[in-house]
Design a protein that fits this description.
Elements (H helix, E strand, L loop, with lengths): L1 E2 L10 H14 L4 H12 L7 E2 L6 E2 L8 E5 H7 L4 H5 L5 E2 L17 E2 L7 E5 L2 E2 L20 E8 L3 H4 L6 E7 L5 E13 L4 H9 L8 E16 L5 E12 L2 E2 L9 E5 L4 E5 L8 E3 L9 E4 L5 E3 L14 E3 L2 E15 L2 E20 L1 E3 L4 E3 L7 H7 L16 E3 L1 E5 L5 E20 L4 E22 L1 H8 L1 E3 L6 E3 H4 L19 H7 E22 L15 E17 L1 H5 L9 E22 L2 E15 L4 E15 L2 E12 L3 H5 L3 E6 L20 H6 L17 E6 L8 E12 L7 E13 L2 E2 L3 H11 L2 H4 L2 E2 L13 E3 L3 E2 L2 E16 L5 E17 L7 E2 L3 E2 L10 E10 L5 E10 L2 E3 L10 E2 L2 E12 L3 E8 L34 E10 L1
């Protein structure tokens, strides 16, 4: 359950009612009725304890939050059976999909959260109010894998900038995980779950059958186990507490081939009226082509009978999808301890320690020669006479030429290494985090907190079954060894590479184990992230000093503080990985940032308890930051106002100026090639200048670097995957964001148990750090000939955008245009007493997205992404989403059941002429059901099923079978339930 407002007022009325609702969300099923009783007691005049709400450092008992805060309690973790916190957060309408377990391609091994679709790097993640470190040396956003779901007491989500309170990275908001740190006794918790799907999709089944691809049957897989132990004790003198925990999580894999909607990468057919299976032209047995570089063009494959035949892109491509992951297998160990001890007076020493070790395997289709070689010697003994004729003799190359170099002909080979198995990355993250501090009260009006924090994340990635591209060309130049009379590499014959083994893709079954042993090379990446933080706050209530409005009961409350933060990143690669000889180049990355900050925050009641003004309060915050090594001085600030004309109604509004300084990855990453996906055109081609009948004119294509001779002959990539050149930029500047929120909370006294809120949000980020999306660069160049965009496009052999190292679109980091979003958050919480039938609680949380706009560069046209998906918008952004749990608490046996309705609105494919089958991803409705029962007061049993009716995810070829922006398996698995039903059981025993 969740609550859209955290209360903060001692008096009866609105805040007290909201307090009761929040306590019920946090306490869990067993304490629900008591929490309701507590709210009634508060309403009768008893004091409610002061709390610190995410978004403010002031402990407030008389003011409510000026910005909306959504709270997910521990009971919600149980109700969903969540073992991954990113899955829990992704159910919130305010959260847009980010990195997670459903992201197999280009996997970082981390899990992140993205508020409002502004990017995970613009969401600040805290644990118990303290900042988490970078996720890894290759992914800056905090890694949620470090947080055991069952140890979370509650999650507080503040949407809207909070840089003035917490510092940089809080542009979109803050997610604060409150852990169970004050426990007494022993608690054992077990959770087991698995996915089940009938794989019923007649339309995709017909596509697979036409393509001759296997049709998966019913599945029960993706088993997971999560085990937790919590041990806590108070000190004998009653002045302290020690709480320790241990967690073990194990997750089995789910492959895309196990689900009917992802068993092949989808393209379009019949002028876009239907789906078709597409694949990679790096295939088996092979594609041999000149890609427009030979005098007499050729393109053929092996016929399996010793001969050759023309290559057919509709039937001869390689289905790379089945071996790709939907969920990566992995294992995690984590543990930690919380120590609290009252050392003197009201002063408490504290220490938090956390450790986690997470191991996962990312798997994709087999490696191959992705057209990375361009030459063959025509006296190669593996070439058949027919192949020699087509490749060599037709193009004037004599296999018997006197000079060896004159025997070479142009040849591009796309050959999948099916003998070597799928490519794998064994990824491991190990983290340690220690916080120590002293906090307490100086007197009744002043409190302090001084702390130091150190965290480190160690990263390790071992790649296997990749081919060394430098060795590929050596293994193709093969001649008869005069000493043995057998085929051998020329480099072995002349002694330059004695261990070279010849590679024979020219015959079916011609690849030997010796060739694999030579070509397959492991890769290795390692690195670490360190974080050092020193800070302190002094908070006070200035009422007794007379700093008080004459019309208010309370005076000014303030916080002043300082913080020094240093974050260092270092990532190293072996030579093969660094140079790109195993595929995508992974250059070394190193760098650091340091920042000194001072800040203050104030809360000031202006009027209280007057006619038509139950409360009128002003709040504000200011932070000065000096990123002395990189971007220099920054000023962030906020101002807000709350107005309650009566205890039943509260209005609130806040403006914030937020900033984000670039992180070391954005600043210092060297340039390297990465994959991007183009939208398929009406002619079935992805590159607008490819194919016999390109969708773009000759004049337009010439702007992108196509010659008149190449036009109409450019080879398209059947999988829609092309290359960009990405990397850091040491000259990046600061992002600046303006956030405005305004809303109302209504708790009508005439309807006990009802709380309604509506909040408007508007966030605009200027100079946001990103890249010019390659598709936008290509389209702008085609349409306008703008030299900036056209200069980003580099066409390689034959005019392609994907063959060879010279084919790419530049997409390096820069401060681009603007990114903005606006919308409405709606919340309704209603508790209904059913007398002898127990109690019923309804929680409704929804977001209506009014706009999600991006301007790629200043002066460019705005791209509207609200209600759209694919292309420059990437992941689907429905205009409306909601989550509606209905919870029934029975009057007997501590039995509770929860039924949740999750709804995602439909989205349209962005673009002028989307294919009909991709035009719309329809709306999706998911029903989740959970049950819990407390037995003998110390044992709670629970079970449930999410996606009760096994809804298939909406699919589209525009997502990109190879990935796209958080796309995977023809859908967005972080948005939609891509794997079918999720069934779980669990038990918690407390002693």
């Amino acid at each position: 359950m969740y609550q859209n407002d955290l209360p903060e007022r001692r008096a009866a009325g609105l805040a007290s009612a909201v307090t009761g609702l929040t306590l019920s969300a946090v306490a869990g099923p067993a304490a629900w009725s008591q929490a309701a009783n507590d709210s009634v007691a508060a309403g009768l005049g008893q004091e409610v304890e002061e709390v610190v709400v995410t978004g403010s450092r002031i402990a407030r008992g008389n003011l409510t939050a000026p910005s909306p805060v959504t709270v997910l309690g521990a009971s919600e973790v149980d109700a969903r059976g969540s073992i991954r916190v990113e899955d829990l957060l992704n159910t919130l309408p305010q959260v847009s999909p980010a990195e997670g377990s459903g992201r197999a391609n280009e996997a970082t091994g981390t899990a992140t959260v993205d508020l409002r679709g502004l990017g995970a790097e613009r969401t600040l993640v805290l644990v118990n109010g303290k900042r988490m470190p970078y996720g890894s040396p290759i992914a800056a956003p905090a890694d949620l894998n470090q947080i055991p779901a069952q140890l979370v007491e509650r999650v507080e989500v503040l949407t809207g900038g909070a840089s003035a309170v917490y510092g940089a990275d809080a542009v979109a908001g803050v997610v604060n995980f409150i852990m169970r740190d004050d426990f007494e006794g022993i608690q054992l918790d077990f959770q087991g779950g698995a996915f089940q799907s009938g794989n019923n999709n007649d339309r995709v089944e017909a596509v697979l059958t036409r393509a001759g691809q296997p049709v998966p049957g019913g599945a029960f897989d993706g088993r997971s186990v999560d085990f937790n132990v919590i041990v806590g004790t108070n000190t004998p003198d009653g002045r302290g507490n020690f709480t320790a925990y241990f967690n073990w999580r194990n997750q089995n894999q789910v492959l895309q081939g196990d689900r009917i909607s992802s068993a092949c990468a989808l393209g379009t057919a019949n002028q876009g009226r239907d789906f078709a299976c597409i694949g990679s032209s790096t295939t088996a047995p092979a594609l041999f082509s000149d890609f427009g570089q030979a005098e007499v063009p050729f393109e053929f494959t092996l016929d399996g009978q010793g001969g050759i035949r023309p290559f057919n892109p509709e039937t001869d491509t390689f289905n790379f999808a089945p071996l790709n992951h939907f969920i990566r297998p992995g294992e995690r160990f984590s543990g930690g301890a919380f120590v609290r001890y009252n050392v003197f007076g009201d002063s408490e020493a504290y220490m938090d320690f956390a450790f986690h070790d997470d191991r996962t395997t990312a798997q994709i289709a087999p490696a191959g020669n992705f057209f990375q070689t361009d030459t063959i010697n025509c006296d190669n003994p593996f070439l058949s006479p027919q192949q020699v004729q087509v490749i060599c003799l037709n193009n004037g190359v004599d296999p018997a030429a006197a000079a060896l170099e004159d025997r070479n002909a142009v040849l591009q080979i796309g050959r999948r290494n099916v003998e070597g198995g799928p490519r794998r990355n064994e990824i491991r993250h190990t983290s340690y985090r220690v916080i120590g501090g002293l906090k307490g009260s100086i007197d009744d009006n002043w409190q302090y907190d001084v702390f130091g924090q150190y965290a480190t994340v160690t990263y390790r990635d071992v790649a296997s079954n990749f081919l060394d591209t430098a060795k590929l060309q050596q293994s193709l130049i093969v001649r008869i060894d005069p000493e043995t009379g057998q085929p051998a590499c020329q480099s072995a014959i002349d002694g330059s590479t004695p261990d070279c083994a010849p590679w024979n893709p020219f015959q079916v079954g011609g690849v030997t184990q010796e060739a694999l042993d030579f070509l397959q090379s492991p890769g290795f990446r390692t690195g670490n992230v360190t974080q050092k933080v020193f800070g302190g706050t002094l908070s006070g209530d200035l009422t007794k000093y007379g700093v008080q409005s004459p019309w208010a009961d309370f005076g000014l409350q303030t916080v002043i503080g300082f913080e020094y933060r240093e974050e260092t990143l270092d990532q190293r690669n072996d030579e093969l990985t660094r140079s790109g000889r195993l595929g995508v180049a992974r250059p070394d990355v190193s760098g650091d940032i340091g920042v000194y900050e001072v800040f203050t925050e104030v809360q000031m009641p202006l009027v209280q308890g007057r006619f038509l003004i139950d409360e009128l309060s002003l709040n504000g915050a200011y932070r000065f930051s000096d990123f002395w090594r990189t971007t220099g001085a920054q000023h962030t600030y906020s101002v807000g106002l709350t107005y309650a004309p009566s205890p039943d109604v509260r209005l609130r509004g806040q403006y914030q100026r937020a900033t984000r300084s670039p992180n070391p990855i954005e600043l210092f990453s060297p340039q390297a090639p990465f994959e991007f996906v183009l939208t398929q055109g009406a002619n079935g081609q992805f590159d607008p200048c490819a194919g016999a009948n390109p969708t773009a004119s000759l004049e337009a294509c010439q702007r992108t670097g196509v010659t008149a001779q190449q036009y109409g002959r450019i080879a398209d990539n059947p999988a829609g995957q092309f290359r960009s050149l990405a990397g850091g930029n040491a000259d990046l500047d600061v992002e600046k964001a303006d956030t405005f929120t305004a809303g109302a909370v209504i708790t009508p006294g005439m309807v006990p148990g009802l709380s309604v809120s509506i909040d408007y949000f508007n966030i605009e980020v200027d100079g946001f750090i990103g890249t010019v999306p390659p598709e936008i660069a290509i389209n702008n160049c085609l349409d306008t000939g703008d030299t900036f965009f056209c200069g980003l496009i580099n066409r390689g052999p034959g005019g392609s955008l994907w063959v060879g190292d010279d084919s790419f679109v530049v997409a390096t980091n820069l401060n681009t245009g603007s990114l903005s979003t606006s919308g409405l958050d709606l919340s309704l919480n209603y508790t209904i007493g059913l007398g002898k039938a127990g109690d019923l609680r309804v929680d409704y949380l929804a977001t209506y997205l009014l706009s999600l706009d991006q301007v790629p560069l200043p002066g460019e046209n705005k791209v509207e992404c609200a209600g759209f998906y694919a292309g420059p918008c990437g992941v689907s952004s429905p205009e409306y989403r909601h989550r509606l749990p209905v919870t029934w608490m029975s009057p007997w046996g501590d039995f509770m059941t929860q039924l949740t309705w999750r709804y995602f609105g439909s989205v349209d494919q962005i673009g002028a002429t989307p294919a009909p089958v991709n035009a719309t991803l329809g709306s999706e409705n998911y029903i989740d059901l959970s049950l819990s029962k407390t037995v003998y007061k110390t044992l709670e049993l629970r079970a449930g099923v999410n996606n009760l009716f096994d809804n298939n995810p909406p699919v589209s070829s525009a997502v990109g079978g190879g990935g796209g922006t958080f796309g995977n398996g023809n859908t967005y698995p972080q948005v939609y339930d891509a794997l079918g039903r999720y069934l779980f059981i669990g038990a918690t025993a407390t002693f």
